[in-house]
Deoxyribose-phosphate aldolase
Amino acid sequence: MTATATSARSDLSELGRSETALRTFLHGLPGVDQVGAEQRAAQLGTRSIKTTAKAQAIDLAIRMVDLTTLEGADTPGKVRALAAKALRPDPADPSCPHVGAVCVYPAMVPYVAEVLRGSAVHLASVATSFPSGQAPLEIKLADVRAAVEAGADEIDMVINRGAFLAGRYQEVYDEIVATRSACGDAHLKVILETGELATYDNVRRASWLAMLAGGDFIKTSTGKVPVAATLPVTLVMLEAVRDFRAATGRQVGVKPAGGIKTTKDAIKYLVMVNETAGADWLDPDWFRFGASSLLNDLLMQRTKLTTGVYAGPDYFTLD
């Protein structure tokens, strides 16, 4: 890290000591050009790639999937089956890579841990009163500690959007710091719920706030509101992590989640990552997809490229 970056990081670390300092910094960030962001995202979405590159992109996208089930009807048997699929997405093809992680509710973590133990697949759990974020802090932190103790090595927390939108930035910052501490060695993904933030400026501010407070990833959505991940929102977040690394020397990951269903969609996001943040983020350690149905389409397209025969959705388990 350069001396300049070290100095900048030190200066930024002082922001969390004061509501006024946080507000001044966040509202001093450059405004997002809505038209420009949407046009840029649309333009990047038109890029085409050749067959060989497409095959590589599909395998990379598979490795970036956080295979997710967050339903009230989840059972131990269901999440064990999901974990088995995470390890061997295509049982008929051992060359198919494993996914990035399995993401479940805290109560389901022990059952997933049984299957994933000793593997390279991460175990993620939503916590902090997912999806609303509306609970006392001590309950949120207990949720996190329980998930980590049960075997989760990644925690997906959700910010209190009510506090953020009311301008109580210090409250949101302090909750993220406390959650980061409760995670211990587990990585922390901070869910912004961008569909409720109303503006791209708010997305940029929330992204910086989450990174300043120690988040390892910033994530678009819970998948529980009508508007989830979009290309323009993800563009704003990628610009934020790029600029944050330039200012501090610390790299933070990005996870769009919700509504990404096809291989074509996934490739659009990968192109955007490369063109906006750079090749350093084209790695499961720094970019993930929060999705389940996406994996099946990736597997179908992969089979078509490798065998020349299109396998229908009934060839793969439905999630």
Summary: The mean pLDDT is 92. The domain at 3-308 is CATH 3.20.20.70 (TIM Barrel). The radius of gyration is 19 Å. Residues 134 and 160 are 7 Å apart (CA to CA).
